[in-house]
Amino acid sequence: xxxxxxxxxxxxxGTLGAVxxxxxxxxxxxxxxxxxxxxxxxxxxxxxxxxxFSYFSLPVVALTAVFSGAVIALQxxxxxxxxxxxxAIAGIVVLSVVRELGPVLAGLMVAGRVxxxxxxxxGTMRVTDQIDALGTLSTNPMKYLVAPRLLxxxxxxxxxxxxxxxLGVAGGFLVSTAKLGFNPxxxxxxxxxILTTADVVAGLAKAATFxxxxxxxxxxxxxxxxxxxxxxxxxxTSAVVAASILILAFDYVLTELFFAR
Amino acid sequence: MSGPPKNIPKIRIRGLTKTFGTKTVLDxxxxxxxxxxxxxVVGGSGSGKSVLLKCIxxxxxxxxxxxxxxxxxxxxxxxxxxxxxxxxxGMLFQAGALFDSLTVxxxxxxxxxxxxxxxxxxxxxxxxxxxxxxxxxxxxxxLSPAELSGGMQKRVGLARAIASQPDILFFDEPTTGLDPIxxxxxxxxxxxxxxxxxxxxxxxxxxxxxxxRIGDRAAMLFRGKLVWQGPAADLLHSGNPMVDQxxxxxxxxxxxxxxxx
Lengths: 261, 261
Prior knowledge:
The complex is a heterodimer.
Chain A: H1 4-34, H2 43-53, H3 58-80, H4 89-127, H5 130-136, H6 141-178, H7 184-194, H8 197-223, H9 228-259
Chain B: E1 11-20, E2 23-33, E3 38-42, H1 49-57, E4 64-69, E5 72-73, H2 79-86, E6 89-92, H3 104-108, H4 110-114, H5 120-133, H6 150-162, E7 168-172, H7 180-197, E8 200-205, H8 208-214, E9 217-222, E10 225-231, H9 241-248
Parallel strand pairs in B: 3-8, 3-9, 6-7, 7-8
Antiparallel strand pairs in B: 1-2, 1-4, 4-5, 9-10
């Protein structure tokens, strides 16, 4: 016999679980941030996380940016040439890269690379008692492991996005001038005419938010992982999936905030 | 610093209870450990030994009961006061729980470095001295924990636990996974360290040879209850049928393993 109330109960359980998880993540993030304001600070841990976040992600982010800038130039040319609107291509490339593709694609790539590594590292530390050991050595694990990574995420991803913006525009520029026959100086002039400071700032604000989300998801899922190798594996998966979805969701919210009139 | 009065036990546990879901892991534990003595808690797998240790350390919050260290109920302390108490506790974890991202000497000197109590050069030197105390050559300090054998990892874990000269030391199954000779070596080092520091020690183990070597007094935990307490020397001839069955490893007796036949 299937009780029709089972379906209602399942919905209720799911809702309660989602609310509980949201609350737990929020408390975790707030605790991590609060440790950034209270000494002692672990500068060494911050620098290590910053290098891992930014320097080692550079190749991946750079390649992603070049190709997406190039493909936008190509796609918009095939579409816009029908209406004789080829002159808009420089603007389309720079605005889509700076406002959207730079932050979002860099965020997704970093979530896959750094978020996963973070969850795996903290998860392994959890299941091998290393996080408990920190506590017995008068070191607060939130302060030592989580706070430096959150800060590194907020700082590193905007830096990566600056690089991604430049390379994305360069990718579009290359295709437009080498293949589509645009005049190089004309292309650059219209690029800079269209781009405003507000576009760049909004893109970087998105990047900082995404960096925080990546670090938060990596730390939260790793820190709370349990159950040996399998637990660490599922923590890693959850960290990447959650960070990716949150990046896209927050991208919409921030776009609404910055650009919708 | 004036010590606490002699008649107050260093650690005093009353009515300690912890339940996970429907399973009662600790069921009203009463235990006193006098200052400067060693207490060994023996019991089978899943008898609640590790949970007891984690409760005293503050890693798990018990449901009921009190834990007093030097006459102060540590369950009612603020987080800051709790950290001060923990600063005087050293712990040797079962699998070592060495930080695998750090070298051996950084592990040993972790407490000094994390609290910025010593410069790196000075901490390096101190780590060498402590490594020598557990019978390791200071040159081991430059290796990473993964390069060490199980016995060496245990010794490094011991070195890390005694580095801050704690007045309480906890040992979680110090000889598990070691050969009998290395087990005896570790026990000898533990007894030496505890004597030299004048610390109070609590060890949990199911290794009878180790229990009688380390302990002054012993207690046996079975299904969350203390079923016997007495001098560690009496473990092998306590007269208590449960303890006798356990210490002599008999299949028949008052303790029935929950096995499906």
